[in-house]
Amino acid sequence: MSSTVVESIITVPPAVICASDPASPSTSAWTEDSTIKGFSEKAEESHHRDSEDGSLDLEAQIPRKRRLAAIRFTFLNIYRRLFSLVFLTNLAVFVAIMATDRRLLALVNAAAGNLLACGLARQPLVVNSIFVIVASIPRSAPLRLRRIAAKVYHYGGVHSGCGIASFVWYAGFVGLLSWEHWTPASGGPTTSATPVILAYLILALLFTIIVVAYPRFRMKKHDYFELMHRFFGWLVVALFVILLVVFADEVSRASNEPLGRFLIKLPAFWFLMVTVVAIVHPWVLLRKVKVQPEFLSSHAVRLHLSHTTTTFGKGIQLARHPLLDWHGFATFSDLNGKSFSCLVSKAGDWTAACIQDQPTHLWKRGVLTYGFAYVMRVFKRVVVVTTGSGIGPCLSFLGDDNRPALRVVWQARAPLKTYGEEVLNLVSRMDANPVVIDTNQSGRIDMVPIIRRIVKDFDAEAVCVISNPVFTKKVVYELESRGVPAFGPIFDS
């Protein structure tokens, strides 16, 4: 963005919303035609000071991008690094095993082990444990360590890496099983057709799961992805258990060993049993809960739930039908301390229906799960950047008495009209003087120059970006590539 555009944002009051009385955020009067306070005054003063001193304009003062920024922060982001580390480690072991004795049991154990790791990487109790451990790092720890630890929300790379690796291991198992079945003279055990048929069926299901998880398909056909990923995944585990029992029965007969004794000595059996428990656990907690909807506008609704309480950084899975599409929402405590809320903004068929036909009951499963925002508590000073209904996850900061000092930058369409005065008052509880931009009057603006200025003035340790995937990737890359630590969840975080 050119310096003249930045100046117009800073010195010409855009149509934005901000607290009229930063000292009293809970009773602030919000108007549609206010100007940026605090930030705009400091930015304008700084801009004029730079001009008087003969300094370079804002564009010239933008830090240069780091060397190999596109590779480091895009092609080899943390998610892909974790994926590559997991997959390449498995690949190296796979090659070593195939080059030596190529035992069927080694292949099936490795396939089951990766399937277990893949499932645990998404298990709510495991996810909560990971976030609690990472967020326990004290703020007195070196900043570099805290910034590395805060990337833990990319654990989806482990899920994907183990999923692909399990397919490779299993494909090797199927190949070797087929070879021994059709070539008895090879010296291996002669197997019947039943385990071979089951093996190929599971292989086809695994391949389908991987195909529908491809990002482009997943984003365009999310409902199909979710249903196939869930039900095919369950079917794979069930058939894998059956295959293991059938295969173990044939092997144990050949070695004159009781089936039960053979199974309990087989690691794959225990891996699959733990996988079954991990899958079943959230569904044991399936409940239909009461919901009190609060209509905000034709674009948003606020859902109040009281079946439990929430804490900072937790999200909930909700659905109208327990076996159809599930949607995750960030939660934040209501002021009464006895219930919590989540904001639903129109973003698709399900959310649109939720606004038009407001539910009084919804299904929930599992436990409330920590999300990306929770790791921000390792920092002392954070700039929170969001757009539209992304303000919902940001409001979860209100549930943490030990939250970092915050500055909020929120760009939305008619925020007062869309989300209501109460939501904006909650925003001012996080930041007494937030920067809230109304795109209906100012249009969509490049927020990066504003963010950089606030980071500098606020001496922030990190920038927390919560928005749609395109905006999040763009802002995080623009900041990180120029040395500003920025964090934002992607579609698979």
UniProtKB/TrEMBL annotation:
InterPro entries: Adenylate-forming_domain. GO terms for cellular component: plasma membrane. The chain crosses the membrane at residues 82-100, 120-137, 158-177, 197-215, 227-248, 268-286. Keywords: Membrane, Transmembrane, Transmembrane helix. GO terms for biological process: conidium formation; regulation of conidium formation; sexual sporulation resulting in formation of a cellular spore. This is Integral membrane protein TmpA.
